Amino acid sequence: MNSKYQPLFEPFALRSGVELKNRVVMAPLTNYSSNEDGTVSDPEIDYYIHRAKGVGMVITACTYVTPNGKGFPGEFAADSDDMIPSLRRLATSLKEQGAKAVLQIFHGGRMCPPDLVPNGDVVSASAIAAEQEGAPVPRELSEQEIEEIIHAFGAATRRAIEAGFDGVEIHGANTYLLQQFFSPHSNRRTDKWGGSLEKRMTFPLRVVDEVKKIVAEKANGPFLVGYRLSPEEPETPGITMADTLELVDALADKELDYLHISLMDFWSHPRRGVETNRTRMELIQERVGRRVALMGVGSIKTADDALKAIETGVPLLALGREIIIEPEWVQKVEQGRENDIRTTVTKDDQSELIIPDPLWQAIMNTPGWFPVVEK
Fold first, then answer.
1. SS3 state at 122
2. What does the pLDDT read at residue 289?
3. pLDDT, tens only, 160-209
4. Which of 47, 176, 227, 258 is catalytic?
5. Domain boundaries, given as residue ranges, for the chain
6. Please, what's the b/e burial string for 200-223 (b: 16 or more CB within 10 A of its CB; e: otherwise)?
7. HSE-up of residue 54 (Cα within 13 Å, Cβ side)
8. For every residue of 313-328, which 3-state class applies, written as one string?
9. Mean of the pLDDT values across residues 317-322?
10. Structure confidence at residue 367 (pLDDT)
């Protein structure tokens, strides 16, 4: 290994006591490849095994905590105890490769396709559709239903513990239900769950409290809890960077293991609400970096990109598309072969990369996902 990349390979101890062998994490990536009954499929297991050998931690694709939270075709389930054997199989497969296994728990809210949820009953904080063509108008959740979903996040956490995962990541990003409650676009409530910035934080913070309560009650050893968030929304009204700095402050008080800042570009700047001459990661690191570990993600493609990002003081880096296209990203850097990292795919690379058919079709049919070149 080129010694200049050594900072990427330093071990890191999380607050809970979970220890990572290095600073590189496989980001949660939807792969659309689970079985119809919500269990993890064989191709999915193979895909993960092929990518878990080098990283310090794998965060799984999101798993839904209630039947009406399913956000994608081919998404695996954590909504009943019947799913524990499936979850255990995934956790075991990841841990056998030497990576810590983290289950990302999720509810899609208004972003759920109606044909994936019972009776097409799409729900959210308020009856406001997403600003997308054909987006359904969701039904506003009742107080009792909100409490039931909070408890469902706790129940999914218990299943993760019983299945042998090393932790859970609460998915509060990418326009899904927790973000919908925090956003002034999707949350127009006037009760205790909405209105002011503080009230819009109530639901996500209650989910954190419930998850941590279950961990305290059920985990027999170190078990991590992370939280993923998106710092801004393009809509007006929408989440601003100023809102997010208040949210990360509140989350830092919860003594989480990390905050995972969901960005397309690690170096991106705020849209509005704060000074825009500094990056979002800089602002969040300054606000809470001494109180909670941060995980950065977004357009970290090369070893030099990763080194530059880690030198900002952010202790953990997640690789998403980069580790789909180059399953041995970490090993190649570790072996001094960083110039061999794959940056493009051809239409014939699926079997070599061990990518399940539904994910491969998404890659091939989504312009800009990856540079696809002819051989």
1. coil
2. 98
3. 999 999 999 999 999 999 999 999 999 999 999 999 999 999 999 999 99
4. 176
5. 3-365
6. bbbbbbbbbebbbebbeeebeebb
7. 19
8. CCCEEEECHHHHHCCC
9. 96
10. 82
**How far is residue 149's CA from residue 69's CA, in Å, rounded to a whole number?**
9
Among 70, 78, 254, which residue's Cα sits nearest to residue 157?
78
**Token pair recorded at residue 12:** 């890191």
Exposed, middle or buried by CB within 10 Å (0-12, 13-18, 19+), for 311?
A: exposed
pLDDT band at residue 368 using 50, 70 and 90 as cut-offs: confident
- Dist. CA 50–CA 328, nearest whole Å: 8
Residue 64 annotated as catalytic: no
CATH topology of domain 3-365: TIM Barrel (3.20.20)
Do residues 29 and 48 lie in contact, with contact meaning Cβ atoms separated by under 8 Å?
A: no
Q: What is the mean pLDDT of residues 118-139?
A: 97
The neighbour count for residue 114, using CB atoms within 10 Å, is 11
Residue 375: is its pLDDT beyond 80? no
Q: Which residue has the tokens 């009204």?
A: 237
Asked if omega into 231 is within 30° of 0 (cis), the reply is no
Cα 43 vs. chain centroid, distance in angstroms? 21
Task: Give yes or no for residue 321 having a pLDDT over 80.
Answer: yes
